[in-house]
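Fold these two proteins, one after the other.
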Amino acid sequence: MAMRFDTKFEPHYGQPVEIAPGVARLTVNNPSAFTFYGTNSYIIGQDTLAVIDPGPENDAHYDALIRAISGRPVSHIFVSHTHRDHSPLAARLARETGATTAGEGPHRAARPLRIGEINPLDASGDIDFKPDLVLRDGDIVEGDGWRIGTVLTPGHAANHAAFSLEGTGILFSADHVMAWATTIVAPPDGAMTDYMASLDKLLARDDRLLLPGHGGPVTKPQPFMRGLKAHRKMRERAILERLRSGDRSIPDLVAAIYRDTDPRLHGAAGLSVLAHLEDLVARGAAVTENEPSIDAIFAPA
C-alpha cells in the first residue's frame, strides 16, 4: 500500500494566509528536502494573540510576523519542539512582544548517547530554548478568545508537542503528522517506539483538521493517520524481510528498501531504519551483538 501525500502547497512567503477564523499561517522561506516549502508559523486570535512555532532566526520572517501581529499584544509563544527550523526566533519575538514562551522543555535526545556514539543531529537542535512555561500533557493555556491544549507527542523529537485549539477540532500537529511526507524519526534525537505510541494517541482523538509544521493541512486526519501507521508497519516488515534475505547492515537495507528515494535523503533514511531496528530489537524481533547503532550488524531473531 502506497501512501498518498498532498504536495500541492503555495507558501505565500511573507504574507499571512487565513486557514480558519482566528488562525493565520505564515511560511518561512527556508525550503529544503526536509522542510518542504518551509516552516509554518501560526498566529492565533484577533485581539491578544498567540504564536505557534515562530521559526528559525530569519530576518524576513521576523519582519513578516511583526507586520502580521500589527501592534496587537502577544501573550504566548508556543514551541512544538526545539529543532532549529521551529524554535530559535521565539527568543527575539518574546523580547519584542513581552510574550511568555511555552513548550514541553529544553532540547534533549530521546535516549542517552552510547559509548563512542556521536549525535548526527546535534547541529539541528536549539539548545538555547528554555520555555518560561513548561507544559505537561493535557495542560490548557487560556488567552483572549482562545484556549490552547497540550498534546505531548514524542517521537520526531523527545520534547515534541502538538497543540489543540480547544472547541474547534483543530490540532497543530507540527512535525508529527504532515500531509506532504512521512515524519523523520532519527535516533538519538527521536525514537520509533515513542513515535508510534504518539500516533496511536492522536488516532484516539477526534480532531477534524491537522495544521502541520510544513506544508498544507491534513483534512481527513483519521484515515490519513491510519495510512501512516500502516506505512510504518509496512516499512518494518520490509526491514525484517531484508534481514531474513541476508542483509545485515543499515547501508544494505537502505540501498534495497529506499532504492527509489532521492539519494540526498539516504542519510535520513538510514537513521529511520535505525529507529525501526531499535524498536525491533527492543521487542525481540531482531538481534544485534551489542547495542543497535548505525554501523551495527543485525539479524532476524
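Now the second one:
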Amino acid sequence: MSAQRSIADLSADLATRAESFCRQYFPEGRKQGNYWQVGDTSGAKGQSLAIRLQAESGRKAGSWQDFATGEFGDLIDLLRERLGSVTLKETLREARSFLGEAPCPAVPRDTQTREQPDAASSKRIARARKLFSAGKPVLGTLAATYLQGRGIKRLGPALRYHQRVFLRQGEDGADLPQRAPALLAKITDNCGQITGCARFYLDPSTGGLAVIENPKRILGQLHGHAIRFWSGKARSDLIVGEGLENTLSVGTVLPEFDLASCLTATHLGLFIPPPGIKRIWIARDNDEAGRNASMKLRNKLESLGIACGDLVPSMGDFNDDLRAFGKDALRQSLLKAMKAQVLEIEDG
C-alpha cells in the first residue's frame, strides 16, 4: 500500500468518527447541528473553525475550514495542526492510535442520567480536559526523558507534556502556587471521553520526578476509568495495571497488547472493563495492596464472564523488573506466565 493511499485511508477512517475525534482533540468546542465549532486549530474556545461531522450535499465528513484565517483541509491536516511541531509520521501514528480505541457501547438512558457528574466534578473534568489539550506530544521533551530513563519505550497519544503546570507545593494550601513541568496522562471512560488528567511533576535538573510532596496528582474523575494505550486494532485481550510506569513497562516488552493503567491499587480494583473484552491480564504490584486489588477486580470480572489472569513481578513492580532484568528476560517471563494461565483457564 502506498504512503498516499495509507494517508487517504486514515483520513477516511477518521471522518467516520469525526465527532469522537472532535471531542477528544477539541474538547473546548461544541456541536452545532452537523458541525463542531471551535476557536482555531489550537483548540481554543470560539466559533471560527467549523468541522463537518457527517457527509451532506456531496461534502465530505471531516472537512473543516477556519473562517478567520482561510485555512481548510481534512482531519489529518487538522490533527497535525493540533499537535503542533510534529512530523507527518508522528501525526499518522497518532491517527492510527486514535482509530484503535475501543468503540463506545450503547448505554441505557437511565444509566446515562444516573452517571452525570455533579457541578463541582464537572468543573474539575473541564479543567482536566483543558489542561491535557494544552499539552504537546512527549517526543523530545522532559517527559520522554523521564520515561526512557526508566527503560520505557511504549508511549502514545494518551500522554502529553506541559512545561508550566499549576503546582501547589503543600496540601494545606499555605504555599503560594507555582508552575512546573509535568508529564500529562489523559484518563478516559469506555466511550473515549476524557474524565481526568494525571500529572507527573518533573525535575528538569535530574530528569526524574520532582522532589515534592505527592509529585503524582490527579485532576478530575478516575473511579472506574483508566489511561489507555491501544496497540492499533482492538483485540479481545487487555492488560490492566496499577501505576503508569508499571503498566508501560509491561507494554514496552509486550507491544502487541492493549493496555489500561488505573494509577493506584484502589482504582485497579474499581476498573470497569470495556465492551468486547474476553480476557483481562491484571498486572499488579508485588505487595498486599496489589493482591487485594487483583482479587477484587478478579471477582468483578468473573461475575461478568470475563476470563482473567494475574501477572506478578519478581520485584516490587514491573518497572523494577524491566530495569533489573532487561526487556528480553521480562518478555519471556510474562509470556511464560500467560501461557501457563491460558491452559489453566481453558481447562477450568
